[in-house]
Amino acid sequence: MTDRRGLLAAERGTLYKEAEIRVALVYPSPYRAAMSSLGYQQIYRVLHAMPGVAADRAMLPDGAGDAREARGPFVTLETGRPVGGYPMLAYSVAYELEIAGVVETLARAGVPVLAADRDARHPLVIAGGPLTFSNPAPLAPFFDLVILGEGEELIAELVGIARDVGFVRERVWAELAGRPGYFLPHVHGERVPPVAAVSDALLPARSVIATPNTELADMFLTEAARGCSRGCTYCVMRRSTNGGMRIIPRGDIIAGIPGDARRVGLVGAAVTDHPEIAAIVRDVVDAGREVGISSLRADKLDDELVGLLARGGYRTLTVAADGASERMRRVVERSTQAHHLLHSAELAAAHRLHTLKIYMMLGVPGETDADVDELVALSRELAAIHPRVAYGVAPTGPRARVPSSQELIALRRQRLAAPAA
Ligand code: SF4
């Protein structure tokens, strides 16, 4: 465990600025997770770019229970000021389990946890982040307002408005009424508005701070694409969200990589769907850098790309199947097929990658034992090609912005009635 000063000393790229307005940018998980979040870093960059505004980071302390208590007052990294003393606390929430971290950090900041218990003495408390794409409703009790979806433009607009009205929540609400992209729980109730999409001119998001103290140690992250043009029924990133996939030109990606970046992470929901992905990876690897890609599609892997990934330091080839059988993959409209997975195993073996990892979803409505039997048979075939095959298995669960179980069952019936693709 490293203290505040130790964490700052190990960082490169930390932004320091004297400013009239300071916002506390709070991440409800520990530092290691926060600094692996490209969205969190992007909002940090955007706020610092505003004249007269600075953002100071605060994260859920490491450890648990007494160990967290022993870490002392809850302060921001850059200034050491108490989080509860800021006029605005801006949270980035990735998934539902982090709501426990929201509750704990608000309590540690001395701010009433429920929005209904706060008044003019307390900061404005807002949220954004990946959870707002998939399931923003559980955030409603804790936040004065929520920015939905891509937040780069709206966070700047919001901070500007809040500054103009003195961070008085009722005045902020009055200014935001009717504007798209904001969820005002006391106004909208359970009718959550659509998510926001930023101008393509603001892409790509890129790392601001590099540090060895993250899950992605010293890796410079840059978006290669945003969104996804595929249509998997269970996924919040499917093409119906924010107009599908937006591609970052190869030249822009490469030009944005700092000269001292030793490791480069290409980020996006479907990076290997980028039409120039092999050339981009080659550019990175030929410059002597390691490479990481946040998402590999099995149907996009070929000898050239996997060879480049191996040169760029890959040890595990990770793909997703997300349906136990060909039939279930058709049900959820996942384009991956068994032959793609077998080919992935061949490529991993040919390039001496240590492990082939496959993400799998079980418990999809309509799944039967026969589908799982097919998965067992496929696993045997895979294991005959590559000695180390690992599965990451997750159950399906209903999310607010994806089809419900009943809708999936209806989709399944439609698929089964239609001829096989
Ligand atoms: S390919 Fe991946 S990101 Fe795209 S819609 Fe399917 S599950 Fe979502």
Q: Overview of this structure, please?
A:
The protein is an alpha/beta fold and 421 residues long. It folds into two domains: 4-188, Rossmann fold (3-Layer(aba) Sandwich), CATH 3.40.50.280; 201-417, tm_1862 like domain (pyruvate-formate lyase- activating enzyme, Alpha-Beta Horseshoe), CATH 3.80.30.20. Helices cover 33% and strands 16% of the residues. The protein contains 16 helices and 14 strands. The chain has helices at residues 4-10, 31-34, 38-48, 66-69, 99-108, 131-134, 152-164, 169-176, 185-188, 250-255, 277-286, 303-311, 326-331, 338-350, 369-385, 405-417; strands at 21-27, 53-59, 88-92, 124-128, 145-147, 182-183, 219-223, 225-226, 246-247, 263-267, 290-293, 316-320, 355-362, 389-395. The strands form four sheets. The protein has a six-stranded mixed β-sheet with strand order 2-1-3-4-5-6, sandwiched between helices. Strands 7-10-11 form a three-stranded parallel β-sheet, with helices on one face. Helix 6 (131-134) links the parallel strand 4 (124-128) and strand 5. Helix 3 (38-48) packs across helix 7 and helix 11 (277-286) runs parallel beside helix 12. The longest helix is centred in the C-terminal third of the chain and has 17 residues, at 369-385. The chain is globular. The protein starts with a helix and ends with a helix. The mean pLDDT is 91. It binds iron/sulfur cluster. Iron/sulfur cluster binds at residues 228, 230, 232, 235, 237-238, 269-270.
